[in-house]
Design brief:
Elements: H1 4-9, E1 18-22, E2 25-29, E3 35-47, E4 54-59, E5 68-71, E6 75-82, E7 90-93, E8 118-124, E9 130-136, E10 148-153, E11 168-176, H2 181-189, E12 199-202, E13 217-219, E14 224-231, E15 238-242, E16 247-252, E17 255-256, E18 261-262, E19 265-267, E20 272-278, E21 285-292, E22 300-307, H3 325-332, E23 361-372, E24 375-380, E25 383-384, H4 392-397, E26 422-423, E27 427-431, E28 435-442, E29 448-452, E30 457-464, E31 482-483, E32 485-488, E33 492-499, E34 504-510, H5 513-517, E35 521-527
Organism: Gossypium barbadense (Sea Island cotton)
Protein name: L-ascorbate oxidase homolog
Keywords: Glycoprotein, Signal
Length: 560
Amino acid sequence: MVGGRKGKEMARLTLISMLFLWAGSMLMVQGGDPTLFFEWNVTYGTIAPLGVPVKGILINGQFPGPNINSTTNNNIVINVFNNLDEPFLVTWNGIQHRKNSWQDGVLGTNCPIPRGKNYTYKFQVKDQIGSYIYYPVTAMHKAVGGFGGLRVNSRLLIPVPYADPADDYTLLVGDFFNKGHTSLKKILDSGRNLGRCDGVHLNGKVAKGDGKDEPLFTMEAGKTYKYRICNTGIKTSLNVRFQGHTMKLVEMEGSHTMQNDYDSLDVHVGQCFSVLVTANQEPRDYYVVASTRFTKREVTATGIIRYKNGKGAASSELPPPPVGWAWSLNQFRTFRWNLTSNAARPNPQGSYKYGSINITRTIKLANTAQRVDGKLRYALNGVSYVEPTTPLKLAEYYGVADKVFKYDTIPDEPPSDNTKVTLAPIVLNMTHRNFVEIIFENHETAIQSYHLSGYSFFAVGMDVGKWSPEKRMNYNLLDAVSRHTIQVFPNSWSAILLTFDNCGMWNLRSEIWDRHYLGQQLYASVISPNRSLKDEYNLPEGVLTCGIVQGMPRPPPFSS
């Protein structure tokens, strides 16, 4: 494991010219921001998180994939070799790719990597800190691997609002289906529902409780440890808790939070929390527990946390999970932005007064589940997204957007009859630098989880029932957490605020992966009227092309 202090030490090298091996990657520093080089081989391999052999997706032979350990402003270069028998593409969930949606790794911006080929991602974790994940966006690959942790440590010159932990651990929890990704895809293609998961894993493992389990993590009595907890599953919200220990929440998806203590945390699909856990109990084994939430049948999995020089097995008496989603809604309301702490820059987080900015556009999105030609589809405002063979961003850049999609195919309000569903690409034309309010309304009985790539937003409101303008009276306009993923409870709504100042083509998607696969997503196109390198980078050299732009001459680049 590479501790938080060790990760921060990388920042000391920014003015030294050198080349050396670090954490399984190559680091090169040439008088500027360091560059990390990785080479990933994506292959099939047998995995068995629940004890049943499944054809999984490995990165460099690992499930979950390798952890990326970086520091603010590092440049990251990852050469991905696709050794699968089908196209593959990976996205970097929460990395904002300023001016550079070319590297976002979603099918609206990138062609998938063909079988037997490779593609090199090049991006910078510019002005970001925090805990993130990466995962595949093609087909149902995410269900069986190809995912891992991505951490961005603070630079040494930027103070963090807590002491350096004794070590820094990544805990990836998620639901799991033993059917395998091919069978899951066939189920969805046939118009059926995936049903319930078969179980839950913690870093790809489940403790058997027979006294022979190897620990997921070790702690030394009296010391404090940082755990980055992320839900990498495809469908199910999970509650995470540490037997006999409390968690102090310190960071959430790139923002330092007010440091409240929790006995357990609901982590919805695609979300990441960082907590501090102090080893203040009798030295022996303890369980870290993950349980499904909002499911008819609760499924629980455990992993071992072992004290160094401890004696004794973990107690079989597990801490109980919370009951009901009202508990989870109330927990959300306790999350607060730490206004006085720094994030990636020296200025305090609270220096950005988002609550005083006038809203220029309100978009209300209502999700629905309907059948089209007898097959299940998920939609937003009456349209279910379909992937064109040409990525949206490439079509736009090459000047052939009109042959691939139409802008604003959905209204800013749900239609009065939201039961009729059409199939089409969905692209919202967003005005550069507009301050926008997005309302997610969930009229279904299933919980939702949404992610917006390229941005962080302020999660200002959440409540039961339908949204109406007077609900703004209860918005948190002072210290709502800036984050990239938000849940919407059954028959409820959630509201976010953000400035669309990052040019590119950005994916707003359901993190519930069967919903994503069957159409519950859209893209926001943000184009600078200046057509300038100050606002957006040119098409990178070596980018994969496909669809109608394949073979077309490259458009002239922006010159300034």
